[in-house]
Amino acid sequence: MATMPTRISQDLFESARTVGEARSRSAAQQLDYWARIGRELEASPGITVGEIERILSGQAAYDDLTSGEQAVARVAWQQQIRERAAALDLTEELAAAGRPWPEADADGNVVIRRADAAA
């Protein structure tokens, strides 16, 4: 993904940093997240921000949303999944616990890795 420098207000950056830390995102990742949600909201003027926030926080049911609101919620969830998956690295944790784990090799074959061979 290409990035482009842009100027934003200091208070928006600070807000993104604060909220991002609570959600395990950098300030840039939080701003990107907000921009994606905003883009979807503007493309669908019948969607309310409050309703989407209630769904994302688990306070309301996804099935109660309109199809447009569901689309916005799915975009937000996809972004959260991508961020969490990118941050996952269980090798160190499993090795420290002395537990073996399966991985796919370069040919797609399943191999069992062991803590003593991970170093």
Automatic annotation (TrEMBL):
It comes from the Bacteria. InterPro entries: ParD-like. This is ParD-like family protein. The lineage of its organism: Bacteria, Bacillati, Actinomycetota, Thermoleophilia, Solirubrobacterales.
